[in-house]
Amino acid sequence: MRKVLGLSISAAAILATGLLPVAAFAATTSPAADTPVTFTVSGGEIGITAPTTTAVLSDAAIGATASGSLGAVEVTDNQGLDGGSWTVDASTSIFTTGAGPDFTTPETIPITDVGYDPGTVDDMTITGTVTVTPTVIAIGDFTGSPTVVAATGIEGDNSVTWNPVITVKVPTTNVAGGYAGTITNSLT
Description:
By secondary structure, this protein is mostly beta strands. The chain has one domain. About 10% of the residues lie in helices and about 40% in strands.
């Protein structure tokens, strides 16, 4: 015990006389200091737009098909997702002519006689990282609200625009006249 005490006293005595530098006995410090930093990136909203003006299809004879562009439909997704997805479903009303409100069969075109073609991926305007799958709804297949455009594999913000072609087959039993209906694009 004397030896250890003696060494401690000797080291203190040497330090007091200034023969050893103070730094030799000081605690070691790092030449850098790390400070954690955090912040939050807030996501935005997702929305859909479609033309609000009337889309005019080509004229068609009884038994023939009318067709035309609906106009630009656009989904803007500013949610900032990683691996997210969204879909757009389309629905249609029946097309009618005449005075209504009790339209007769010759004055209506059922939804099954309507088609919706969103076009190909190459025809779409796509920004951001997203995989887009369009689906053609052929005349005869339009029931309920089928998915017409699906987006998967989303990273960050994205937007997709397409200009669907709408087709309406006029049944051979219909009357002549101006027909009107509504196409609805719904984002889910």
